[in-house]
């Protein structure tokens, strides 16, 4: 890493302040060109505050990713930015770093608003702000729907420099005069395409009216539909446009499909669990009802499983997200609630139990694996009814989803240091759970035990964080391990042997739409 030039005030003390930093363990996993194809810049090149640099390095950042190289220097000038980059390439830090750099901590006013579409993403983004700015004394507040307005009012009675939140709650606070944005010069929209959907656009436009005319607006997303163009023309002033989307899908994510009948999906999922080397996985369903039913089925097969969807209480969603991020459970079943921006780098497998209806949703789902240039695997369970969507999504994304082979090369989705030889070393789940409990206490999250409504399916003494399958299921028939009998689909139809999606038989050719 290069040192600052002699013109920088930090240069004569560079070695001293760097020696005082406690760096995390170096991530030795290989990375793709999505994050390594840089110009060779260093974070010191942007003349950032020393305290901010300390937070950046202590968070594990070594050099700027391509989107950070493009966005940070422009954002520091105060110019409007319209940035398009792939999921999982460092977009959050690309706007958090310049936002924190411009904060005047001696001024007890709200100076920046970071707007996100979901509560989970708000919590994650606020934590990034706190981690990167921990040496700056920047006061960060997160506010979302599902929490009491009274808590927000009390928090805003104290100094707050950066607010991270969702549109509805922020408009409520601004309209009531609780949140004062009259001196907030930074307005950031992450996952801007979602924020500018019909449900949010009127709220966003009202929110902007509370900001000064000389505010800076920055939009970040992986996809920019036509509504973004209209918003840009109406509110942005000569924006600097960044487009790093020479291709839409992440280079590190390998995509496969398995052609199955609806009632065979659970068997195929069981086979995948037993065959794949999963670090952590996210399994997507198209409805909240199917999320809960599938989570129950997965647990009956002998695998530990959390679930999360939009109809759950916010405190329960927070705990599921927190514990899954901290490695308490290996598998998470969810709706599209977690497709937006959620960054859990331990996730190396994404399974579309239900194939999505459009290319945008598909792109965001598979982007939960292969984060920050690492390797990942996306497997899609395709029924006869999905054949049109499969071809449409391939065409729109300019990608090809291959039929699943008999054996998937683990080098495609497993870090070299984690490749199995004879046996995978099992993680200490109890230790992870104890750590998560301690962190929840520090974060003030609820301590009630998980039950059905909390999004956590568990059977007494039968958690198996690595999968394994093979035990007999009470409501369907045979054992699970090799994709054989048992409860067939989410609805529990059993009785016939399902095809093994990874058998040695030649994969069924991709069904052609009529």
TrEMBL record:
Gene3D superfamilies: P-loop containing nucleotide triphosphate hydrolases (3.40.50.300). Residues 252-412 form the Helicase C-terminal domain. Residues 41-69 form the DEAD-box RNA helicase Q domain. GO terms for molecular function: ATP binding; hydrolase activity; RNA binding; RNA helicase activity. Residues 1-37, 424-514 are annotated as: Disordered. Its EC number is 3.6.4.13. This is RNA helicase.
